[in-house]
Amino acid sequence: MKTRILIIIISIFSIFSNSQSIKVDYDSQIKTSFNSFVTNIKNKNINNAVEFIYPKFFKVVAKEQMKQILNFTYNNPALGITILEYKTTKIENPEKINNELFSIVNYTSKMNFKMDWNSIPNGLNMKKAIIDGLYKKFGKENVSYNSKGDYYLINSKMKACAISSNGKDWKFLILEESYKNKLNNILPKKILDKF
Question: Which pTM value belongs to this model?
């Protein structure tokens, strides 16, 4: 009898110690999902890309409106934004807050920005303001003009937040200071404080 109890106790201890030593590879799961998200944007598959956006964000910007914004940005003949490359540079360990996992994803991207200035009203007058906006957002040292192709090359360092309720299916929010206040009711303060 004592032997059986001892075997049961050792078995239970063994099960608990093995389950605690199994480490979930969140980095690879987050990276794979983030790659799919960015690849869909890069390939202008906006409907697919929107499916990778954290659903609670659609309380701030309706899903259809987000599709329109992304289509205007990436599928607009007057506005050429081409993602040339991106690289995930760091994925923070996920933190569980209110039954969801949150992880900050740092990444860099290189993109071309080309505008058909003649196709928009007062385009040539707006050119300086738009270029100044690019300098302000990305830093003048990260924006260079290519006169032969009449486009701007932009190098950026950015952050996204990866969110999952099950540790397998990851959704994302691009974190930008300009709309941080709109995320107050969506992301926990602890996450908001990281950007």
Answer: 0.81
